[in-house]
Amino acid sequence: MRDATFRIEPGERVLLLGASGSGKSTLLHGLAGVLGGDEEGEAEGSLLIDGVPAAQARGRAGLVLQDPDSQVILARVGDDVAFGCENLGVPRDEIWPRVSAALDAVGLDVPLDRPTKALSGGQKQRLALAGALAMQPGLVLLDEPTANLDPVGVADVRDAVGRMLDERGSTMVVVEHRVDVWLPIVTRVIVLGDGGVVADGSPEAVLGARGAELAAGGVWVPGIRPAWPDPPRTAAGEVLLRAERLGVARVRGHTVARGIDLEVRAGAATAITGPNGAGKSTLGLTLAGLLPPAEGVVAASASLAAGAGTSPIRWRSRELLSRIGTVFQDPEHQLLARTVRDELEVGPRALGLADAEIGPRVEELLERLRLDRLAAANPYTLSGGEKRRLTVAAALATAPRVLVLDEPTFGQDARTWSELVALLARLRDEGSAIVVVTHDADVVAALAARRFELRGGEASG
């Protein structure tokens, strides 16, 4: 991002939009004063908070990061929420009432001594927001704060932020690709593009008068739906994975869902849905052969196993690569290489493929997922949406018959969302089995996916 010029007045509530990779998250980091110095990148112009450089105004802003895992600091929930207050020197007898009030505001109803490692991705999202609210900052910076939340959680978080803004008169800047949820409380929309700020004004002026133009550039605009793929061309095929009386647990001895009977079929999509904490991601990892069943079994068909045995958890990593591909909820948990191109070559090289086969496969994925201009970039420098597309591409590079994706459309703009969903539909129509763990109802509908819902340890589908 460059040549962006704007001024945000105290008390304004700004929705920051733009295509994937336009610099939205980078701008929030800059406003929070945590972007780093010249040795970590390049900077032009000035970025001021209350008239002083943002890096010298730390403590004025509360930042909720795009990846909640990167914001979890301490081992227990209460201590983690209290951490920011303690660093600001808030008196001890004031900290714990703030902690309790913040957790209640975001709807995270767990004991203060609950281990943070036992929380789901959506619960960690609420935890990060509670930590920011407890600090009672003058400037609230939110980067995709509802991305991993169920619909109830989305409303809870939006309402909690709204109440805090009303009570304290704080300023807010929120980055969110899906804008509908924030429109009731924002007063201004700023859109970033190749030329810096490409639109700035009231929600009605920006999204109304220029909605079609912005949508064509990838911005999510209410009432303008991106293109959906065609319905499945053929009926579902053979059962490739079968779960019977399955119980799943991420932490040994703590089963989060049980009694699961589920079939994953070739040429079809399955959507695992349900509220935060119900065990959706844990179920996905168990189906993918990355977590052992706590109860029951996950069995692969003879054609999928191809001599490796029927239990995916017993397969070697190389055997998994060509059979079941996995895209984690947090992209950074599976980045291994120094460049984007190298990342896409990791799996094929592990399979022993020749360079003559690897090159064309990687080039096609780079182009299809709009990563070609970033081929030489370090994966960790990509935006959240770009990292997500990279991990999807890396999973596809080994051509697995089953693909398990956790929140695959997280961080995508309208254009890349449509392209990614179309790619998954193409794989489905070519005979792959697609499993998506998602809160995105449009993904479920666009893929014509069979919905399998987890609710509080129970399953229905």
Question: What does this protein look like?
Answer:
The mean pLDDT is 91. The longest helix has 18 residues, at 151-168. The protein has helices at residues 24-32, 77-87, 92-106, 121-134, 151-168, 203-209, 211-216, 280-287, 302-305, 317-321, 340-350, 355-368, 384-396, 414-429, 441-446, and strands spanning 13-18, 48-49, 52-53, 61-64, 139-143, 171-175, 188-193, 196-201, 239-248, 257-265, 269-273, 295-300, 324-327, 402-406, 433-437, 450-455, 458-460. It starts with 12 loop residues before the first strand and ends with a strand. α3 crosses α4 (121-134) and α11 (340-350) packs across α12 (355-368). It has 461 residues and is an alpha/beta fold. The strands form four sheets. A six-stranded mixed beta sheet has the order 4-5-6-1-7-8, sandwiched between helices. Strands 13-14-15-11-16-17 form a six-stranded mixed beta sheet, sandwiched between helices. A three-stranded antiparallel beta sheet has the order 10-9-12. The protein has two domains: 13-216, Rossmann fold (3-Layer(aba) Sandwich), CATH 3.40.50.300; 239-460, Rossmann fold, CATH 3.40.50.300. Helix content is 34%, strand content 19%. The chain is globular, with a radius of gyration of 22 Å. It contains 15 helices and 17 strands. A hairpin with an 8-residue loop joins β9 (239-248) and β10.
